[in-house]
Design a protein that fits this description.
The protein is mainly alpha-helical and about 140 residues long. It is about 50% helix and about 10% strand. It folds into 2 domains: about 40 residues, no CATH class; about 70 residues, no CATH class. The chain is globular, with a radius of gyration of 19 Å.
Amino acid sequence: MTKGASTGIHRNRRFFGLLWDTVSRVLTSPHYALRESVEALRAIDKTQERMLAPVNHFDLRATVSRVETPIAFFQGRHDAGTNPEVVARYAAGLDAPRGKSLVWFEGSAHMPYYEEPVLFREALLRALEVAPTTAEPSCSVP
């Protein structure tokens, strides 16, 4: 892989660069003692193992074919972690009577919020404008 080549997660950073960022942020965080930081880093591998194994046998099209709330998909065009064509097909086939959208991030892989933060924020705010606001919930005490 050449310098700056896509890993499928981030277009401009390679795997070990992203890993180092994560490790350094956790180890230098003022919110954790050193022992807690080490435990958190060890948990990353276990978490991915437990989360990804079931996902490989999960078909969202069969499980969730309709949603009753507005939904927006944010997809990096160069994502290798979540296949863009699969997302596009799912979004197209999803029954979402209150609205759906698919927002493409042409300069991103799996992390458009990190790779294109300004565009991501704008798209998120547009998606929130479409979502209906609800009145404050009322509460009655017997």
